[in-house]
Amino acid sequence: MFFKSAAAVSMLPMSLNGMSLRTYGKESLFGVLGKRGISNEKVLVIIQLNGGNDGLNMLVPLDQYTNLSKARTNILLDEKKVLSLNGTTKTGLHPKMTGLQNMFNNGLVNVIQGIGYPQPNFSHFRATDIWMSASDSDKFVTTGWMGRYLDKRYTNYPKAYPNSTMPDPVAIQIGSLVSLNFMGPSVSMGMAISDPTSFYNLVDGNTGSTGTTPKDLELAYIRELTQQTNQYTKVVKDAAGKGKNLSAKYGTGNNLADQLKIVAKLISGGLKTPVYMVSLGGFDTHSAQVDNTDTAVGTHATLMQKLSDGISAFQDDLKLLGISERVVGMTFSEFGRRIQSNASGGTDHGAAAPLIVFGEAVQPGIIGNSPIIPSSTTVNDNVPMQFDFRQVYASVLQDWLEVPSSDVKTLMNGADYNTLPIFKSNPMGIEDVADMMTQIEISGVWPNPATDFVKVEFVSDGGGKLSLSVYNPLGQRVYHTDPKEYGVGRFEIEIDLRDMRKGNYVVQLNASKKSVSRMLLVK
Amino acid sequence: MDRRQFLSLKKNNLIDEDVKPKVERRTNTGLAKYSGTWTKAEAAHLLRRTLVGPKVSEINAFASKTLSQAVDSLLDTSGYSFLPPVNNYQNQTPDTAVAYGSTWVNAPLNVNLEGSRKVSLKSWLWSLPARQKTTIMEKMIVFWHNHMPVQIQDIPLASLAYFYVKALNDYALGNFKTMVKQITVDPAMLYYLNGRLNTKNAPDENYSRELQELFTLGKGPNSKYTEDDVKAAARVLTGFNINFTTTPFSTGFSAFNHDTTNKTFSSFYSNKTITGKTGVTAGSLELDDLLGMIFSVDEVSKHICRKLYRYFVYYEIDANSEANVIEPLAKIFRDNNYEIKPVLKSLLESEHFYDQWNRACVIKDPLTHQAGLVRQWEMAFPTSTDYETNYQIYAVGSYFGQITQMNLGDPPSVSGWEAWYQMPLYHRIWLNSDSLPKRNQFQDYLMSIGHKVKTFTFMVDPWIVTKQFSDPKNVNTLILEACDFLLPLQLSNAQIGALKEILLPGGIPDYNWSDEYRAATDAGDPNHTTSLATATTKLRNLYRNIMNLSEYQLS
What we know:
The complex is a heterodimer.
Chain A: H1 2-9, E1 13-16, E2 19-22, H2 26-34, E3 43-49, E4 59-61, H3 65-71, E5 83-85, E6 88-93, H4 98-105, E7 109-116, H5 124-133, H6 145-153, E8 171-174, E9 191-193, H7 200-204, H8 214-229, H9 233-242, H10 255-268, E10 275-280, H11 299-321, E11 327-333, E12 353-358, E13 365-367, E14 387-388, H12 389-400, H13 405-411, H14 430-437, E15 441-446, E16 453-461, E17 465-471, E18 477-480, E19 484-485, E20 488-496, E21 503-510, E22 515-522
Chain B: H1 3-13, H2 40-50, H3 56-63, H4 67-75, H5 114-130, H6 137-147, H7 158-171, H8 176-184, H9 187-192, H10 206-216, H11 227-236, E1 240-243, E2 250-253, E3 263-264, E4 273-274, H12 282-295, H13 298-312, H14 319-335, H15 340-348, H16 351-354, H17 366-376, H18 387-403, H19 435-449, E5 451-453, E6 456-458, H20 462-466, H21 475-486, H22 493-503, H23 511-521, H24 528-547
Antiparallel strand pairs in B: 1-2, 3-4, 5-6
C-alpha cells in the first residue's frame, strides 16, 4: 500500500503519524542509485555547531506553541514569523532560515527530531567527546567515529598513504585543529587545513610572517618547510587552484559559508577526500540569545542565518558545479538547550535536539515528533531523546558511505543501532514500512500526576518489537524495557516511581524507527 | 636548496622585495653588560640557550636572581657530579666482570661486550642533558664534543670513548689550552685521528692538520698556516701511542718513534723553531711548545669565540658582531690565558646576548629538542635501580636523535655536525622534510601515546607542569603561560585564539574550563573521574598543538 501511494505522490511531502516525509517512486529511486557508480566519490560534510544549539529555537514545535510560550516568555519567536515547511503544520523553521526552508521544500533536507543519548552529559567537553567518539556516556573511547571508519576504509594509514588510488587526504577539517572525530586507533586520520598560521593562507598562498629580523627569517623558513613537508600540501593546493565556486550566494561575514566554500572548491578541484568537517561556534547562548525588541533577531538568529545561508549557498554551489549528487551534509551539536529560558534571556545546557541532514541523497522530510512541552516547566526540564545519535551515524555509514552493517556495528563500538530512513538509498523495506506504519500508541498513563506508581497502557499492532522508556526532567533515561514483540493488543506496564524526584517526565514507546511520547507529572 | 635559492623563493611568494640573501644585521650592541629589564622572558632566554628544556621552576627562580647571579649560578659546577655509565645489559649479554648496575668503564676489554657497552655509553650520553641539573655543563660537553669530536663507532673500546667524554667534562669550563693538550693525547683521539700511528719514519699528518684547521685556528681568512706547518706539527706529535698494558688502556709514548730533530714553522708562526727533544718526556714537552706557538696567534681565540657565538647566539656573524662581540670576547679569552668561564660570563651577561635581535633565532639542535622536551615536562623515569628500563628509555632518545640528524657520540665527521659550521644554512640544516615531521612525531609520541618499556610507560604527565602555572583554571593565563614556557616568542592573537579553541571550542565561555579544572583537581568532586579524563586529554591536545607550531623549533 505504502509504496503505491508513495509512487503516486512522488515529489510531495507526506506526513505519516508524526513522521513527515517525502518519498520517491521506485523509478526515481533507482535513478539516483543506479545512474553511475559514485560509491567511491561520495562525500560527507560534517558541520559542528559548537556550544550546544537551541533546537527549540531552530525547529519550532508549532503544535506545542501554547506551552512553549509559557516556558519561553522572554525569547519566544512570534508564531506568525516561523517559517512553514511543506507537508507539516506541526513544525516550522526559525525566521532567518529561509535558505534552509527553500531546500526543505525542494526535497533536499531531512530533519531528525530529538537526537540524544540515554544519559545526557551537560559538560561541553564531555558531551562533545561522547558525540565524537560515539561512546556511551559512561564509557571513555579515545577514537572518533569517523576516525574508526577511515581507519577501516584506508587500511594501514598513514604508512601506505598517499598512494595512486588515494593520493589525497583521507579527511579534512577546515580550521586549525583536528578533532577527536577523526582520531583513528593509532593516528589522527584528519588533516587540518591548516595550523593557526595557515589554512586560509595555504589556499591563499601566504604565511603571514614578513619581518626581517633573524627570528622572523628562521620562523619563515620553518613555516615554509612545514608546508612543503606536509605530503598533502601540493594536492590540496592543486585542488584549490583547479577548483571553483560558482554560487554567488555565499555572501560575506559568514565564517561557516567561508569554510563550506573551501570545501566546495576542494571537491570540485578533484580531491578524493571523502569526509570534511567544518564548524560554527557561538551556540552557548546562556544570555541574551535574542534581541530585546525583536525575538527574531539577535545572537541565535544570526547563527541560524549563518547556518541556513551557509548550507544553502553550499548546496547551490554544488549544484552549479555539477557535483551535488555526490555530497551529503549533516549538522551536530554537543547538546540542545533547556526547554525553559532563563532570566537573562538565554537558555542553559540541555539534552536532545534536532539534527539536519541535507543533500540530494536524503529522503526529504522530518523523522520523529515535536518534543512534548509540559504545560508547566521548571528550569531543569529537558527535551528527551527520541532517537540515539548513533542511529544517525549508523545510517550515514550504512546508507550513504555504504559500510556493511556488520562493520557498522564494529565502528559503533560493538553496539547495534537501528538505522533511520534518512537516505533514499535506504528504500524502506517491507519491515521498515511496517514499522513506520505501526499503529503504536500510548493509550493511557494513570494516575497523572503520579507519586509512587504509574500504569502505562499502550497499543501494539504486532508490527515489531517495542520498548518503553521514561525520561526524567534532565532528559536522562530512568526506566527502560528491552525491546520485545508484544503482538496485537493493549498492554499495561506498571512503573515504580518511588525513587524518582518530582517534575515533568516523558513516557516514550519506541518501535525501531519511530516513537510516541506522553507527559507524566511526578509529584 | 641553498640559502640564496630559499630566499629568492621567499621573495616571490612571501617576503617583501627588500630581503637580501644575507641577513642585514642592524644591531650595534656589544659586550657591555646588559642593563635592561630582567624578567621571566630574559631568564627563559638565558636558560633556553644554556640548558636543554628549562623547567618552570628554573625560569621562575632565575627571574628572581640578578643577571650576574643567574650567569654565575649556571657556570658554577662545584656541585656537579659525573656518574659513569653502568652495566644495563646483564639480561641480554651477561658480564662476568661487572655486576648489573655497576660501571664497566674500568673493566678489561671484552670483545663480546664492547658492543653492549657502547650502546650503554651512547644511551648514557643522551641521558646527561635529559636529566641535567641547572648548569651549563651539559651544553658545553656537547659543544666540545662537536668541536673536537671522536666517533664512538671508530673507537674499539667503549671505555676509551667514555674517558674521552670524561676529559671533555673535566675541562669543559676549565682551560681551553689544557683541554687541547689532553684531547691531543687522549687514547680515543689517538685512535680516531691516527695519532697512535704517527712515527718519525711514517709521519701521519691527520691530527696535526685537524688540530690547526678545526680545533684551534680554524679556516678563517686570517688562518694562514701552511702545508709545511702541518708536516712540522705532525713531526712534533710523533711517538704518542696507546698503552695496552694498563686497564683501561692509557696514553703511551715511544721515545724511539719520536722525531727528535728541530721543527721549523712558517712566517705565519714567526718562523718559530721547536727544538727537538729526547727521552720519555720529549713528546709532552714539544707538545707544550707547539700549543704555545699556536695559541700565540690571536686567530685561535677568535675562532673559538665565533664557534661559541654560533652555538649560543646566532649562526650569522656580520661585521658589527665581529667587531663588537667576537674581537673583544677573543681578547678576554687571551687575557685570561684561555680560561673558558670568563668568556662565557661576558657573553651571557652582554647586552648583545639579550638584544631582541638575537632572541628566538636559534633552531634547536635535535638533542636540545628531544632531551629538552623530556626535561621541560619533568617526565618521570623508572626507579633509579631499574637500569635496564632507564637505559632503554635513554636509547629511545638517542635513537630519535640519530634519525633526526644528531647521532650523539657519533658526529658525521671530524668537523662535527654541519649545522654548526656549514654556511650558508647553518642551523637550518637540522630541519628538512624528513627531520621536521620526525620531531613532531617525537613530540606527539611522548605527549599523547607514550613509550612502553615492560610495565613502564614513558609519557608526559601534563599536570606536573600545568599545576606550576600561576592560575591554570583561568584559560587565558593558562594558554599564555604555556606559550611563554614552550615558545621563545609571542604568538599572534589569531594563534592564541586558535589554541583556545582546543580548550573551549566554539567560543563557549571561559568558566567551563575553570569548572572542568576544579572538578579535575578535586578528588571529592562528583564529576572528578570524568573531568580528570576530559581535562587531561584537553591539556595534552593543547600542549601537543603548541609544540607542533613552527615556533617550538626555535630557541
